[in-house]
Amino acid sequence: MRTRRSVRRPAPALAALLLAAALALTGCSAGDDASGGSNSAADRGAGNKGVSGEAAPGGTGSGAKATAPPKLAASHIIRTASLTVQVKDVPKALDQARTGVENAGGYVGNETTTRDSEGRERTRVVLRVPVEKYDEVLAELEGSGKLLDRSAKAEDVTDQVVDVESRIKTQRASVARIRELMDQATRLSDVVTLEGELSTRQADLEALLARQKSLKDRTSLATITLSLSETPVKKAAEDGDPGFVDALAGGWNAFVTMLRWLAVAIGALLPFAAVAALIVLLWLRVVRPRLPRRPAPVSATTALGPLPTARPAPESTHQRHPGEGD
Q1: Residue 150: which of 45, 225, 214, 231 has the closest Cα?
Q2: Which residues pair with residue 231 across a beta bridge?
Q3: Of 1, 33, 218, 227, which is least surrounded by CB within 10 A?
Q4: Alpha carbon of 264 to those of 250, 254, 267, 270: distances in Å?
Q5: What backbone torsions phi and psi does residue 212 show, to the nearest 5 degrees?
Q6: Which residue in 39, 81, 87 sits closest to 63, CA to CA?
Q7: Environment class of residue 174 by beta-carbon count within 10 Å: exposed (0-12), middle (13-18) or buried (19+)?
Q8: What are 169-219's pLDDT values in tens digits?
Q9: What are the backbone dihedrals phi and psi of residue 73, each rounded to the nearest 5 degrees, phi first?
Q10: Cβ–Cβ < 8 Å for 87, 145
């Protein structure tokens, strides 16, 4: 019995020791939480004051945070425009357009210059300008003369750009996997098969990269097609009923046009007529005198005399007299 009492006596002391240790640990954790909570609250208050200079609106210092505005997704837009401007001097206006585009960081593309029947010059030029300077350059070109026609178009290709970028990433990963398999392949047939598959996937990747480059070029540079024409020297007369003078002028123009075409036709036929006249002259003066002459026609006679002529047939000996019966 004494042995059992010696064993049970230290149990209450051990339990008290464990309880004291648990309370100490609980107090430490509570102190840490309290200090951390005060520090976080202080940090939030300092952050709010740093943003607005005072407490955040709508908050009482209980930890209200200021939210930043959301970022807008980048848009990819293809901008194209077409202008027809009438100016007094086409070369001068074209030089001004070139200078403005180059100063904006763009360049001049295709250019075509023609002249009409009245000598008036017309130029069509394609201009590529950065999208940031698109509106500025467009307004400058419109003010270079009399605006006759204007059309503008904006096409959003953001979805296409995102889709191409995603497909490029996938295709590059696919090409990398094929190359890894080629490094691990041991049989010749497997290597040949993997090489064919790698060529196909690389071709698809290059096509996607080319499309991405095209989209980037079209979205970063706007296209402006500018048509410049000179101002007519004389204004056309107002439409109305033709008079005697108009009819006389029209008839005289038709007569002059006819004479002009006749002169052209005669001039075209004159070399042929000269050659034909020369051939006829050579025939009459040189060739024809040297040709043998035909003999004169001989009369129907022979050495024994003239040929006998045919005699008339004798009449029948039995002649019918009048009055004779049958």
Answers
A1: 225
A2: none
A3: 1
A4: 21, 15, 5, 10
A5: -65, -40
A6: 39
A7: middle
A8: 999 999 999 999 988 888 888 889 988 999 999 999 999 999 999 999 999
A9: -70, 140
A10: yes
